[in-house]
Amino acid sequence: MTATILSANLPPSAFPAGPLPPRAGVGLKSQHVEDILAANEGSSADIGFFEVHAENYMGAGGKPHDQLRRIRERYPLSVHGVGMSIGGAQPIDRQHLARFKAVVGDTPADYLAHWRLTLAQAHLRAGRSLKSIAHELGYANPSALSRVFAQKLGMSARDWREAVDEGR
Predict the structure, then answer these.
(1) What is the DSSP letter of 136?
(2) In total, how many domains does the chain have?
(3) 19, 149, 85, 15: CA torsion to nearest 10
(4) In what order do the strands lie in the sheet with 49-53?
(5) How many helices and strands, by DSSP H and E, does the chain display?
(6) Within a 13 Å sphere around the CA of 123, how many CA atoms are in the beta-carbon half?
(7) CA distance 84 to 12
(8) Can you tell me the distance from the alpha carbon of 27 to that of 93, in angstroms, rounded to the nearest whole number?
């Protein structure tokens, strides 16, 4: 179930506003960016999201960053492989973290927090209990997850679920 939720609810930090459409993602190759943008001038193709390998964009800016920025303006983006480059045995490279933020628009910690919150929202929409969601997503307890909702969304998880239920 989590894999389905991951593919349908990517973190909002690198995305246009609004929910992610329930369509499949496509791997983004830099040699196709200009064609994608030109073919869909003024609109977006019916693509759920693009997936990129972070290491292909972790340089110091330039054309790859510009292409990624232009794609992010129209499409949701999933960044693949970041954990392997950050979570290795070597000391953390501050320049690498800065490049990550330039590519994704968030720090790794904020990117992960957005993922977890988005997954929690999807699980709540599906009717799962706060306790099971908190456990699955690695929160110490349901109160910890609810505090994240309050910090990021201005309401508890219970209040958020009630607001979503009222809007249906």
Answers:
(1) H
(2) 1
(3) 20
(4) 25-27, 49-53, 77-80
(5) 9, 3
(6) 23
(7) 21
(8) 27
Task: Single out the residue of 119, 161, 157 nearest to residue 1, CA to CA.
Answer: 119
Domain assignment of residue 136, yes or no: no
In angstroms, rounded to a whole number, what is the distance separating the alpha carbons of residues 119 and 11?
Answer: 9
Both tokens of 103, joined, read 């590519």
Judge whether 167 lies within some domain.
Answer: no
Q: What is the pLDDT of residues 39-77, one digit of tens each?
A: 766 666 667 677 877 667 766 667 877 888 888 787 777
Res. 123: pLDDT tops 80: yes
Q: Return all residues near 163 (Cβ < 8 A) that are at least 6 apart.
A: 155
Residue 56 Cα to chain centre, angstroms: 18
Residue 104 has pLDDT above 70, yes or no: yes
In-domain check, residue 50: yes
CA 51 to CA 152: how far, in whole Å? Answer: 25
How far apart are the C-alpha atoms of 64 and 59, rounded to whole Å?
A: 8
